[in-house]
Specification:
Layout: H1 3-17, H2 33-56, H3 61-79, H4 94-112, H5 114-119, H6 129-149, H7 152-167, H8 182-190, H9 199-220, H10 223-235, H11 241-256, H12 260-277, H13 282-295, H14 306-314, H15 318-324, H16 326-346, H17 360-367, H18 371-382, H19 387-404, H20 412-425, H21 427-446, H22 448-460, H23 464-479, H24 484-491, H25 496-501, H26 506-519, H27 528-537, H28 541-551, H29 553-564, H30 574-596, H31 605-619, H32 623-642, H33 653-659
Length: 660
């Protein structure tokens, strides 16, 4: 791949990340000439700022975080149109220049006066009128940027919580709180680290940005294409090969990408047409890609971006979160892989022509060094290095590897391009974390989080399984239309306290909410990853979303399991963990067989129901459930082996249905 091709590929990847509906550049201006150059300089400056702080140490909290979101907001108003229907144009309109100016004035004040702000006595030393106005302006430009980048869902949530902060004292009963003045609210949101500049934005301004930048360096170096080519070479020859390629490629790229939608449209542009070509239906092809891409958010070692925030909230090393996520993520992909394989088997699908596939060893030999940065990250984190340092050294390693590789040599121009694209790719996460700070600030100020948790417990009668179901539904509903990071952050102060109060460990509680926040990307009625895949596949979005839910069913089951038995999070004794992993694996395979309706042959509806029940008993922790599950699964196996043998010779699902 030439240097020109690498740059164009990186630019295409970046443009896709700006789009939430699978249509490139739907919300992005077409800037040219001096405007494009100036914006790129600002983006490069943002990347250099973060690399500098990674090398020499971060600044005090408010300075680091206000500079981070200040850069991001300037880029948002320069790049994003106020609406998808707005004229793309080659210039930045006057009203966006005003928003850029207001951003610079307000957030520069926090940067330049960060030390004084952090040393003042909050709520005691009164803010000046000028400081109150600056806080209001900073909040308004943040809300408008959120609307452009994330969409209306998060904006509506933020406005509802702000309204509650201002007028919640007028509500009756338990929802009422003490009255707060405008100065008090602005003080809490912008002149402390409990609002906009709270933990989520802090993590975005340090760890997350560097890993997003690392992902862009991988892309412009050709690593993204290498992982796709390697997946095609390794899996393409097997039945259902293109679908298995989507699973492998999306799991690798998705763990680096911070967006399930961006991952879907990146790998899906290649894998979905291949799946359709080899015989998969349109809705199934789109669903496979969206489920595989969404799974990247829960796949170690990087897990998109949310893992860093979970670690920050729990106060544990990042590697603890990555290790805990290993088994659930593998079960997720195992269930998807088995379903894809069984679908190919029952439909008589075959792999791609071996003669037309590249050599696995040949592809690996050309790009195996791209694994070095990923391995380096794991080694550094295990050794106790901070995620920020690990991300920095991974970037340096990528540059060095590309410098000695003929296939992916980076020039000064491509390095500059990576710095540019990295900053632009971070905007969604930065804005989401800052906007979530508005919600988090209002929750902490008013105490509604504890009240909401009490309401959940009261509705469930203190029964844990009901509380988990309510939390699952709440996470999916509040996560509709939101990136995983934003969906998770909204939930942290609302639902997690209820789970912890009922005895769930903090790790399991955070992981439970995190999983369902990620799954909102494939759960109708608003399933952004599934809808993006449907756009590429040319399928019905809702049908694709429902198929995605079926394919990702393991992810809807496993979180309940690790709440009741933390062995799946690798917590506990070695024998207990081993037994739990083995039984869960067998159970997940059985669930996949039940969903697809194929074990040794086509399964009739009653066989599927019994098989599903037995498999579910296998994944539920407990010796009695395991024994019952084994008995049921063995019975179904023997039944299919000895009865209706005529169905064993059928080659396709349609043949089996005709015989039935």
């Amino acid at each position: 791949m030439s240097e020109k091709d690498l740059i164009e590929n990186a630019e295409n990847q970046a443009s896709l990340e700006f789009d939430d509906d699978g249509v490139p550049n739907a919300k992005v201006r077409t800037l040219k000439g001096v405007f494009s150059t100036v914006i790129s300089i600002i983006a490069i400056g943002m990347s250099i700022f973060h690399l500098y702080t990674a090398l020499f140490g971060v600044f005090e909290s408010i300075l680091q975080r206000s500079a981070h979101i200040g850069f991001a907001l300037i880029l948002v108003f320069a790049i994003y149109k106020p609406s998808k229907k707005a004229s793309s144009g080659e210039r930045i309109p006057w009203y966006d220049w005003i928003l850029i100016l207001l951003t610079i004035v307000s957030y520069s004040y926090f940067v330049l006066n960060a030390q004084e702000i952090q040393s003042r006595m909050s709520y005691i030393e009164a803010l000046t009128g000028f400081e109150i106005v600056l806080g209001i302006i900073a909040g308004l430009v943040l809300i408008e940027a959120t609307r452009r980048v994330i969409g209306n869902t998060l904006v509506i949530l933020a406005l509802l919580f702000l309204a509650y902060g201002f007028w919640g004292h007028l509500l009756p009963g338990a929802l009422s709180h003490r009255e707060f003045t405008t100065m008090w609210i602005i003080d809490h949101l912008y002149y402390t680290v409990t609002g906009v500049f709270s933990t989520p934005l802090g993590v975005s301004a340090t760890f997350i940005f560097l890993f997003i930048l690392f992902g862009k360096f991988l892309e412009v170096s050709g690593a993204g294409q290498f992982f796709i080519d390697l997946s095609v070479a390794g899996m393409g020859k097997y039945r259902g090969g293109p679908a298995k390629t989507a699973i492998i490629a999306s799991s690798i790229l998705g763990t680096i990408s911070g967006s399930a939608v961006a991952n879907t449209v990146t790998t899906g542009a290649f894998t979905i047409p291949l799946m359709k070509k080899t015989g998969y239906k349109k809705d199934f092809s789109g669903a496979v890609e969206s489920v595989a891409s969404t799974g990247g958010q829960i796949m170690p070692p990087i897990m998109g971006a949310s893992a860093f925030i979970i670690a920050a909230y729990l106060g544990v090393p990042y590697m603890d979160i990555a290790i805990a996520a290993i088994i659930p993520a593998l079960l997720y992909y195992l269930c998807l892989y088995i379903q894809v394989d069984l679908r190919a088997k029952r439909n008589g699908l075959v792999g791609l022509d071996k003669e037309k596939l590249p050599s696995t060893w040949g592809v690996f030999k050309k790009g195996f060094m791209f694994f070095v940065p990923l391995v380096l990250i794991v080694v550094l984190l295990v050794a106790g290095s901070s995620p920020m340092k690990a991300g920095l050294y991974a970037i340096i390693a990528t540059v060095l590897i590309a410098a000695i590789s003929k296939a992916s040599r980076l020039s000064f121009k491509t390095i500059i391009k990576a710095l540019d694209l990295g900053a632009k790719a971070s905007l969604e996460t930065a804005v989401a974390c800052a906007a979530a700070g508005l919600i988090i600030g209002m929750i902490s100020l008013t105490g509604i989080g504890l009240k909401f948790s009490s309401i959940i417990i009261d509705l469930s009668g203190g029964i844990l399984i009901l509380t988990l179901i309510f939390t699952m539904v709440t996470s999916i509903i509040l996560g509709m239309g939101l990136p995983t990071v934003a969906a998770y952050l909204v939930q942290v102060p609302l639902t997690i306290p209820a789970l912890i109060e009922l005895g769930v460990s903090p790790l399991a509680a955070h992981m439970f909410v995190f999983y369902f926040s990620a799954l909102s990307a494939i759960t109708p009625p608003v399933a952004l990853a599934a809808f993006a895949a449907a756009g590429i596949a040319g399928s019905d979005p809702m049908k694709t979303g429902l198929t995605a839910v079926r394919l990702g069913l393991a992810a809807f089951i496993v979180p309940f399991l690790f709440v009741y038995g933390e062995e799946l999070l690798l917590v506990g004794s070695a024998p207990a963990i081993l037994l739990s992993v083995i039984t869960a694996t067998i159970g997940i395979i059985g669930i996949a067989c039940a969903i697809e309706g194929w074990l040794l042959r086509h399964s009739f509806w009653y066989e599927r129901v019994i098989l599903f029940i037995g498999s579910l008993l296998m994944v539920i922790p407990g010796i009695y459930t395991d024994v019952a599950g084994v008995i049921i699964m063995v019975a179904i196996y023997l039944f299919q082996r000895n009865f209706r043998k005529d169905l064993l010779i059928t080659e396709t699902y349609e043949d089996a249905k005709e015989m039935y």
